[in-house]
Design brief:
The protein has 167 residues and is mainly beta. 0% of the residues lie in helices and 44% in strands. The chain has a nine-stranded antiparallel sheet, with no helix packed on it. A two-stranded parallel sheet has the order 1-13. β6 and β7 form a beta hairpin. InterPro entries: DUF427, DUF427_sf. It holds the Pfam family NTP_transf_9. This is DUF427 domain-containing protein.
Length: 167
């Protein structure tokens, strides 16, 4: 349990702190390997995407829709609202062996500043078998709601842990 404002972890060489990320968040291009696996198969793979960087959150990675294998995205009911990016629509990830309900989302018409994300898709790592960035398996952002991916080059503490609601 966290009480009060957190003390940021000190980044080591080659690391970045989520406490140095801006609010409102920043969108940046990402060049590197990103994969998503579900049901024993790779359902998405790309060498380019985008990262959304927001104070206290590990990066959320967005992949081009073309990175996803044919038939693995199924539109899901419902939507949510992000104060920065607008209305999100959801997808189930589907393979013959497994379905992950509402495990992915997109912004069809993102707000100003986030236009490159239109149609790009983010995935909640905890609902998959495995997600990687540059070959490293990621950990999902704590709390079950947020879509950040934690790698060894990002330090926290991360929003989503108990007691972090007011960060």
């Amino acid at each position: 349990m966290v009480s009060g404002w957190p003390t940021p972890d000190k980044p080591g060489p080659g690391q970045e702190s989520v406490w140095d990320y801006p609010r409102p968040p920043r969108l940046e291009e990402f060049r590197g390997s990103i994969t998503v696996e579900l049901g024993g198969q790779t359902v998405a793979s790309t060498e380019r995407g985008w990262r959304v960087l927001e104070t206290s959150h590990p990066p959320t990675y967005y992949l081009p829709a073309s990175a996803f294998a044919e038939g693995v995205l199924r539109e899901a009911d419902g939507s949510s609202w992000c104060e920065w990016k607008g209305r999100a629509s959801y997808y189930d990830l589907v393979t013959p062996m497994r379905t992950a309900a509402r495990a992915a989302w997109t912004y069809h018409s993102p707000t100003r500043g986030f236009e490159p994300l239109a149609g790009a898709i983010a995935v909640i790592a905890a609902q998959t078998d495995r997600c990687t960035v540059n070959g490293e398996q990621v950990q999902s952002q704590p709390g079950g709601f947020y879509g950040g991916w934690i790698t060894s080059w990002v330090v926290g503490p991360f929003k989503g842990i108990p007691g972090s609601m007011g960060w």
